[in-house]
Amino acid sequence: MSAPTGSGGFRYGPWDGGPDPLASPFDAAGALDEMSTHILDGRTPREALDALLRRGTNQRRGLEDLRRQVERRRREARARGRLDGTLEQVRELLDTAVGQERAALFPDPSDDARLREAELDALPADPARAVNALAGYEWRSPQARETFEKISDLLRREVLDSQFRGMKQALENATPQDIARVTEMLAALNDMLEADARGEHTDAAFERFMRSFGDFFPENPQTLDELVDSLARRAAAAAQLLAGLSPQQRQELADLMASALADLGMAAELSRLQQALRAARPDLGWGRRGRFRDTMTGDTPLGLGDATSVLEELAELDELAAALSQDYPGASLEDVDPDAVARALGRDAVDDLRTLQQIEKELERQGFLTRNAGKLELTPRAVRRIGQSALSRIFQRMDARGRGDHDSRDAGAAGEPTGTSRPWHFGDTQPIDVVRTVRNAVLRAGPGSPDGMVELDVRDFEVTETERRSSAVVCLLVDLSYSMALRGTWGVAKSTALALHTLIDTKFPQDTIHLVGFSDYARLLRPVELAGLDSEVVQGTNLQHALMLAGRLLSRHPDSEPVVLVITDGEPTAHLMRNGTPSFSWPPVPETLELTLAEVDRLTRRGATINVFMLDDEPRLVQFVDEVVRRNGGRMLSPDPGTLGRYVVRDYLRSRGGRRRAAS
After folding, report:
1. In this structure, are residues 472 and 621 in contact, taking their beta carbons and an 8 Å threshold?
2. Sorting pLDDT into bands at 50, 70 and 90, what band is 552?
3. What is the mean pLDDT of residues 25-52?
4. Roughly how many angstroms between the first and final C-alpha of the chain, as a whole number?
5. Residue 202: CB atoms within 10 Å
6. Is 36 exposed, middle or buried (0-12, 13-18, 19+ CB in 10 A)?
7. Structural domains of the chain, ranges and CATH numbers in brackets
8. Alpha-carbon torsion 171, 177, 179, 182, what sign?
């Protein structure tokens, strides 16, 4: 640790505890442990990682929690109000203005007053046509004139607000100069977008534009792409709002908007802008029928700008929910927009997302996951940890009397010490005799070592003589056929195989284990391959090929006791033909059973014991295994799938204890 000194330098000393400053900020091992539960249940590494991302970690929310929060926000947005608020406001203002005018005309007995009342009576029911009809009307009532002018002001602000967020408030009580500046902004924006579409460099133009008109854009876009994306999303939401109204409402609102734009003198510029935005972002579903009309549950009428904001938010929430679902081809967490997450759920949710995005990278960086031809695979380091987890799961369920000697401290190639030692030779696995080794070094160096240090040489080493312990070669044959997945037994078979491999590899290295998987074919499996394997959707249980392969593997260890363990849930239904291709038939043909039993006889003559763990009690399977046991002398076991691991590990430990006593 370091601390600042008075001279401005640093003084270093021993670390005094606390968090490890060199530790990784991310617990990749803990993430792997959470994944291991799914892997040991039979899932692939990709499926296990996806399950972890959906569920989340102990510290951070997962994708499912984030999606639930997004759905809650969608419900809140839909409850804000109706989409036809502008039409309702126009109707209310129009009715108010007409009522105020009638009140002013009623006391007047003149014919002009009666003609004006007749003109008001003849107004169209359509508010847009009524507004147009009253455009040139000379109001008697000053209050009515003021109310009617509010309609024009409302429409101008709502139309611009539906395109530019916040414009409704910005143009309240706007002067002609304010309107002229909006028109100037539109022209400059369109010129810049058209230049960009021609492939011209527009960085400098964008900076000038934002210096002049940045106050119109509260989102504060940093690039032209960001500005276009923001404007296009809002414009598309406005188009979907219109598409979601009834035909009559849509026509009325379109007419009112056209009238307002004509008053502003902006119709041409807004039309240019719409075309440019559609060309830049055609993927936003322009003109598509609004899917939100029937889902809006609130009673409050929303103005055109506010309704556009709601639909824009709902569209973004829809995209966010789809990205968080990760259920589309090529899905990646990098598809999730952190800015959209922040807007919808806050900064804490962004931290959760960052953690989820980091999991896969950290698992790869810290050596637990790797990629092979684009496929996610476990590394040997990860498989060792998962195997230990599988073994611990089995031992936790075993009662004390049935544990065997898995905690034995003399595990290894050596047996009990005999009390003598001998010089070490390359390849020896007996324990080093430390006392005799150091004594040899002291005697070789002689007296008078200047610094009192003892230097060891390879000639000094001695090992403790031990009783010879017999070794075994175990072939574990695991059924990979799809019936294992259908019956829900694939996960326990996979977990059992990994546990037994870990037990032998770490506790009893004098023994050897080979993992063989079989469906229509049989093949030797590396532990890494087995851990990442799913059951195979193929027809055939080719036990004949698996036993044939086991015989070849056993022949590599002529001095070891041969043991064959079979985990299966069905009778043999396939065998290899002379040309090496598998032949499948169900029910099995006599040839399949005969060839499979022939391999049993070969292994029996070799001295191999075959123990079969049946995961189903189908009569054909029981009858076949009875014949295997009769011919071989092994055992037939019918464990419940949940206890398979205990049965297999106990069987191995029991047989190993017998070998040890025989060797003594």
Report:
1. no
2. very high
3. 77
4. 56
5. 20
6. buried
7. 43-80+318-378 (no CATH), 84-295 (no CATH), 416-467 (no CATH), 472-656 (3.40.50.410)
8. negative
